[in-house]
Amino acid sequence: MKLLVIGANGQLGWALGEKREKSGFNLERVDLPDFNITDKVNVSRQVEKSDPDLVINASAYTAVDKAESESELAFAVNAKGPAYLAEACASRGIPMIHVSTDYVFDGEKKTPYLESDPVSPLGVYGKSKAAGDDAIRNLLSSHVIIRTAWLYGTHGQNFVKTMLRLGKERKTLRVVADQHGCPTYAADLADAILKISRHILNGSHDQWGTYHYCGQGSTTWHGFAEEIFNIAGTLIPLKVRKTEPVSTDDYPTPTRRPANSVLDCRRIKEKFGIRTRPWKESLAEMLKILLSGEGRLDV
Ligand SMILES: NC(=O)c1ccc[n+]([C@@H]2O[C@H](COP(=O)([O-])OP(=O)(O)OC[C@H]3O[C@@H](n4cnc5c(N)ncnc54)[C@H](OP(=O)(O)O)[C@@H]3O)[C@@H](O)[C@H]2O)c1
Q: Most buried residue, 48, 71, 182, 241, by most Cβ within 10 Å?
């Protein structure tokens, strides 16, 4: 069975590629500049040429703050691109797994977000992702949209690598402590996506729609940073001695982030038997790979 993965050079796309051999699938991985999801004709032609059984869209415009000044590009990649992919899948009668974000919510809810909660994005990135999700729902019934959060992997830039870099340079760091979320390891999400692909392609699946998947347990960016330093400090020398908790107001950014990004992941467990992994356990695994030399050391 053949899977076409778009956005192969991103954090998630890379993690999917690393599972290629074990997955048992024929995984074709594409990315810019050869496969540009904002080019409708190209999308249709490339999907036809690839002739996959299922499409996984791991591509996105993910620069949350920059999106405020690059709204057109963010909507082209996150809203129009997924629509073109959905159309191409619909015309070939194949399903699609698409990845979305916790940033479609405004964070005002006091408990974990359910798939059925109304979206209310705070910035351009979240709005563009929500528009992409809606387009897929309208164009392709055989879709699975997975909302995830606070994604990090061994490949690409992310919060973990930023903290490691700063932790080597500075004694004290100030980190936001009033935004709550669930760190998600790209390799875990890749496993979940491959398991869902198996369900779909062996015909045992009739539950299309939207699902949440993120690391188990929640924390703040400050708590996440402290755990990164706890674990990394046993593996490499760090300069950092203190992480000061600060509020969102102390650290203004072009886009407001949701105060609560915690996603309820019960539905994906009920429908696909997918269990989420404690976020600290996944982080320890990632750091071991990254810092012991097995992974990429571009931190
Ligand atoms: N990162 C997070 O914290 C986070 C949180 C929640 C949800 N998500 C979602 O999770 C998914 C995976 O995120 P990620 O962190 O793996 O993203 P990422 O590392 O930014 O990777 C996205 C990939 O998509 C490619 N891309 C951008 N524009 C494209 C286009 N026009 N055509 C084809 N490919 C294009 C990028 O290429 P270039 O690098 O060359 O632009 C990159 O290789 C996304 O849907 C994202 O919205 C991410």
A: 182
Q: How far apart are the first and last CA of the chain?
A: 36
User: Cβ(149) to ligand 1 under 6 A?
Assistant: yes
Query: Residue 244: enclosing H or E segment and its boundaries?
Result: strand 242-246
Q: How many domains does the chain fold into?
A: 1
Atom 15, ligand 1: residue with shortest CA distance: 11
Give the integer Cα–Cα distance in Å for 172 and 167: 8
> Which ligand 1 atom minimizes the distance to the CA of 186?
16
Ligand 1 contact via 150 beta carbon (within 6 Å): yes
Q: What confidence tier does 299 reach under pLDDT thresholds 50, 70, 90?
A: very low
Token code pair at residue 215: 């690391």
Domain containing 208 — which CATH number?
3.40.50.720
The answer to whether the CB of 59 is under 6 A from ligand 1 is yes
- Binned at pLDDT 50, 70 and 90, residue 295 comes out as very low
The number of C-alpha atoms within 13 Å of 299 and in the hemisphere containing its C-beta is: 27
Cα separation, 125 vs 85, in Å, equals 19
Whether 253 is covered by a domain: the verdict is no
Q: What atom of ligand 1 comes closest to residue 81's alpha carbon? A: 31
Query: Is the residue at 45 inside a domain?
Result: yes
Residue 245: inside a domain, yes or no? Answer: no
> Distance, CA 265 to ligand 1 centroid (Å)?
22
Whether 202 maps to a domain, the answer reads yes
Tokens 């709204």 belong to: 71
Which residues, at least 6 apart from 206, have a Cβ–Cβ distance to it below 8 Å? Answer: none
Q: Which residues are catalytic?
A: 125
Q: What is the pTM of this model?
A: 0.97
- Domain containing 67: what range? 2-157+182-216+262-277
Q: How distant is the alpha carbon of residue 271 from its chain centre?
A: 20
| Cα within 13 Å of Cα(66), Cβ side | 5
38 Cβ below 6 A of ligand 1: yes
